[in-house]
Write a structure and sequence with these properties.
Strand 1 and strand 2 form a beta hairpin. This protein has a two-stranded antiparallel sheet with strand order 1-2. Helices cover 75% and strands 2% of the residues. Helix 1 runs antiparallel to helix 4 and helix 9 packs across helix 13. The longest helix is centred in the middle third of the chain and has 31 residues.
């Protein structure tokens, strides 16, 4: 079955709905919520329909020349990311209805929230470099208003920093387009790569340099060192629903772009054993360790979780750069497990801030003592998500990190793989060091804790149910990882 009729609508519907939201604001809050709910659920239904019933055909929406075209296609990577976006988006949307009730303007937030949804589906289904790059650029401008939603000075500064890193990364990535166009048979994503050996002869180092710049550029969204600094700045000032999708999904747009360049443009054969592979493995390991260490030292709650994202997303990049089937399978499972776990952590932090610390401008971890007694459901979900990030069985984080370690110990990687495993173990210890103290002080505040103080109001179900769903998903991705891994092996079979 041709996917054209199925896949174009989940891209266009949120884009047009978001723009209509900006131009024609709903008369009442309730009507606006109904529109956002309808668009979000309809989008999810259309994505799932396309994933499970559509074929692998290619849709060319517009073509300027033979190599400049707007094209969409479905494959294993497309389906994985599109489903992840469409499954996470509705619960975060319902959560946002409650969270933003006293944080206007809601209309502007939900307008760009819907536009971002359509852009992410476009990134998932991009069939060539031009389409990917176009939607990658659009993603920056659509998410910028989410970061600066409060319009406070610190929010505007954070948004400008995010814009600087994103535009710099996009400029670096754009250099790759010209080189792949020059030395490749096409710029359409092709399993195994598009480079032409005859054209490339004598220009290998030049192409390797261009590939490195492209991967660092796309790595800006994923928080890869040295393009990581926007993450811990943007998260503390953005509304919690925006933080959840920034960390859970928007960073994964950078991961998807990186995977496309490695396995569908340059190709694993071209990169394996080169200085580019070594450089990118070193950068990912440095980011993993640095992010974990900075999170361990950070006292601000949302900043700590943001630094954690810097570290955890680079696990995925590390797996992709191993260029082994096990590493790629572990990276894709980490992509899924981290999206659920980090969305749960940020939403949980938002509940605590909203109900426990509503009048405080500084949301530090030492203010969370005893919060598990007051918000038990929230902190239980927070704990399960933390277990997944640490890598405790039977969560999805454990299985993904296991496969990453197996992939790193591939004989062809030598000492670099062994160093990778050591860094993963150190990072797991540091992750336990910055997440478990929050949990233990929340549930076991000590004898001197004042148990007689009034309890905060109970969070509404629209803010609790997303936490329960995401924490359950972190367990499900580990307990039922077999079908997912078999599905990902279909992807590795096409690229190696």
């Amino acid at each position: 079955m041709n996917m054209s009729l199925f896949m174009i609508f989940p891209i266009v519907l949120p884009l047009l709905s978001g723009m209509a939201f900006l131009l024609f604001r709903p008369r009442t809050e309730k009507r606006g919520h109904r529109v956002v709910t309808f668009v979000t659920l309809a989008n999810t239904l259309m994505v799932l329909t396309a994933v499970f019933w559509a074929g692998d055909g290619t849709l060319t929406l517009w073509r300027a020349t033979g190599s400049l075209a707007l094209m969409f296609r479905m494959d294993v990577l497309s389906r994985t990311f599109a489903v992840l976006v469409s499954v996470i988006w509705p619960p975060v949307t319902f959560y946002a209805f409650g969270y933003l009730k006293h944080r206007p303007p809601e209309e502007r937030f939900f307008a760009f929230f819907l536009i971002t949804l359509g852009i992410l589906i476009g990134i998932a289904c991009a069939a060539n470099f031009l389409t990917l790059y176009l939607f990658y650029e659009l993603l920056t401008f659509a998410t910028l208003p989410l970061v600066m939603h409060s319009q406070r000075k610190e929010a505007i500064r954070a948004a400008m920093k995010y814009l600087f890193y994103s535009i710099t990364g996009a400029c670096l990535a754009l250099t790759g387009f010209f080189f792949f166009h020059q030395y490749g048979v096409s710029t359409d994503f092709t399993p195994g790569g598009v480079l032409d050996a005859a054209k490339l002869a004598g220009h290998e180092n030049l192409m390797l340099t261009a590939t490195l710049l492209t991967l660092i550029g796309f790595g800006a969204k994923a928080g890869l060192f040295p393009m990581h600094a926007w993450l811990p700045t943007a998260h503390p000032v953005a509304p919690t629903p925006a933080s959840a999708v920034l960390s859970g999904l928007i960073t994964k747009a950078g991961v998807v772009a990186t995977a496309r360049i490695i396995y569908f443009m340059a190709g694993p054969r071209f990169l394996r054993g080169t200085w580019v592979q070594t450089t990118l493995i070193c950068l990912s390991l440095l980011t993993i360790f640095m992010g974990s260490m900075l999170a361990y030292m950070e006292k601000h709650l949302k900043k700590r979780i943001a630094y954690s994202s810097v570290s955890q997303v680079s696990y995925i990049l590390f797996g992709l750069m191993l260029l082994t089937p096990e590493g790629v399978a572990g990276a894709l499972l980490q992509l899924v497990a981290h999206a659920f776990a980090k969305s749960c952590l940020f939403l949980g932090a938002g509940v605590v801030i909203y109900f426990r610390l509503p009048n405080s401008n500084y949301h530090y971890v030492d203010q969370l003592r005893g919060v598990g007694k007051e918000l038990p459901v929230t902190l239980t979900c927070f704990t399960l998500a933390s277990m997944s990030l640490i890598g405790v069985p039977p969560t999805g984080g454990f299985v993904s990190k296991w496969y990453l370690a197996v992939g790193a110990l591939h004989p062809g990687l030598g000492r670099m793989g062994l160093i990778g495993v050591i860094v993963l173990l150190i990072s797991a210890i540091l992750t336990a060091g910055y997440l478990l103290p929050i949990v233990t002080s929340a549930f076991f505040p000590g004898k001197d804790y004042d148990y007689s103080k009034p309890m905060p109001p109970r969070p509404p179900l629209k803010m609790q149910i997303p936490l329960i769903l995401f924490s359950a998903a972190t367990l499900a991705t580990g307990m039922f990882a077999g079908p997912l891994l078999r599905y990902f092996q279909r992807f590795t079979a096409t690229i190696f």
